[in-house]
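--- STAGE predict ---
source: upstream dedup step, 1 unique chain passed
mode: sequence only
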Amino acid sequence: MPKLSVGPIGLLPPSAVAMGILGPESRSGYQLVEGEHVPEEKAFEILAHKLLTLRNPTFFPGPLLLWGWDEETRYRAKLSLDLAKEVPGMNIIPMPDYRPIYPKIDPEAVMNPCHPNLTIQHNKIHVCILIGVHCHFANITLKMIRANTNCYTIVLCPHDPHEDALLSIRDMDGPQIIKITETIKKVKASGITPWAHTPEGKAELEEIRARKEKNKVRKEDAKIFMADLETGLDENAE
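--- STAGE serialize ---
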């Protein structure tokens, strides 16, 4: 039995570390899969299989990937998009900001670490991959997803393993993303049928496309906020 399983676990599940799960050492040749240390190549194959076969695969890029901080960021962003393109039916929902979104989140337009389960449940996401999310916010998000949804979580991080992910790839860099992308291509070529190519997948993706087209706001119809802004509190006021 794997040490870490897909949720929903409950309201307050223990952290993976509290369960005794620790990630492999840096550059050890192993990655973390469902709480177990697995050879890296095998971990890449499992990652590819999950992304290709589970319902509504979704890529959640975080601020470290969305904003063009430097050339390395832009390079990784391009490689991440190349990876996403190899997964049929892959949806992309950004996590551009970490501040709570109240009173209402648009679960088809954005991911927020304060209520990730709403986005995942609304979109019926059974597998997701996070890239470019700061470690502390990724940990919060992963634990909430495991607590409240049945989504298989995958994280690519340039630094540490994320024990609360079902599959965690540490020490992520450009060559590693390229290897994962090539693994996805190889698994597809092996004869596997991606979820998006099944009758159920095709029907659901068409329904999603039609819904988004119906709800799409044309640029010329956008409402411009014209009200006066409040000045806020004056700290010098009596």
